[in-house]
Amino acid sequence: MVNRMKDLVVMKFGGSCLKNKDSFQQIAKIVKHYLAHSRVITVTSALNGITDKLLEFYTKSCSEDNECNLIIEEINNIHIKLIYAILDEDSAEFHQSRSFLQKNIEELIQLGQVIRLIRPSLDIQDLISSYGEKLSTFILSQFLKSIDLRSHYYSSDTLIITDDNFSRALPLLEETEALIKEKFVPSLENNATDIHCITGYFGSTTDKKITTLGRGGSDLTAAIIAYSLRTACNCKIIYWKDVKGILNADPKLSDKTDLLKQISYVEAKELSFFGSKILHPLCLDINEKGNIPSEIRSFEDPESNEYTTITREIIQDEKIVKAITSIYQLSMVTIIGDTMIPLSGTASKLFSLLGNNNINLVFISQSSSENNITFGIDFEDSKKVSFLLRNSELFGKQWFKIKIDNEISLVAVIGAGLLHTPGIAGKVFTSLGDNNINIKAIAQGSSELNFTAIIDRSNCKKAIKVLYNAFINRPSM
Ligand code: ASP
Ligand code: MG
Q1: Domain 323-471 adopts which CATH fold?
Q2: What is the pTM of this model?
Q3: Model confidence pLDDT, tens digit, residues 225-242
Q4: Is ligand 1 within 6 A of the CB of residue 141?
Q5: Of all protein residues, whose CA lies closest to atom 8 belonging to ligand 1?
């Protein structure tokens, strides 16, 4: 029988929790609280705003812009200021942090020079943007040491293996689990360390090139680490955020919102796919696959009872619709075919064209006629899609008309079991219709967890209010 170690909490702190002395002290307070009854692994992002600066440094180095030196100076200064604020100048931790910073800044300067000599490439971009996490995490581990906590720093390229899709790499879970069992579990077991501080955001390919997991990727790092340790420990993840948890509607668009205290992975995935940016959908996939419970808690108010727990279990209560979600800025593409050429035959070519060009399809809407395909894309991709279609062999030809509407929003009602419940679609139609909101298209996810309506952007706020009142404020549905 496996001898289970005591409980383990993997906690992720994003850039908004890594700003200054106060935020580092807050992290220490949180970590100490959990150390009383479990082991702690921290996964940290770069200091607030640093990843953007590193990417700017990369871009400016590519165009041989001298400003790139200024950016490095700025990055250096932000970290120096932090080190002076949180560490005693006479301490070993202060000196360790200063020399780590200096070494890494020198490496960055050299990388900038390398870019000017060779052609810019995504692998160098990933390497450069990984420095933010290295610096913040190293400094955090030194800070924890300075307050007498036994901490250890790990750079995640030594623990996480990914594919070589630079800037949006996907973890290779099996390989990573094996590596973590070999390299990390022994140090977890030997009890010499209280807190293991791991960098978020990046891993490396099997041939040891650093890859990043995409913007906001540190959430995913926490999920990958917990997944890999799930058989060795009793794991849970806490994502510390600048909000108290997942809300049932976007507070920027809705007057009324409520905290979702418990939600299932499948529902949370729908929510994060449709607008709620709170966690990366892939990170929820991994949590679900490993059956790892997670919590989203407020960094400002860590002991509050108001937080969201995400588990595999679907809580069935009287509210079938748990949340109203929306994507405010969206574009909708309609391709209208000639009657002679049914579009259904060309749909697969269309979707591979979009897929091969990294276009994210937000929804696909079926129409009863065969000569029409409608789909939603990110607003930012609209020009690219227009260009791709108009220049393609197939769709550029005159017998297809391409229409792109950039003034639309998506609203969706979300909840497990929703589409087995009669009347949901009808109720969406009537409540929007009664309020003079015209539905331009509808779509339903294959997961049966959402029902989506596409409307004019000018109606978005009103639609959310109408749906919130129709489904959530009334206990019957
Ligand atoms: N620092 C990275 C970013 O800003 C990763 C993260 O924050 O999760 O995207
Ligand atoms: Mg960040």
Answers
A1: VC0802-like (3.30.2130)
A2: 0.87
A3: 999 999 999 999 999 998
A4: no
A5: 216
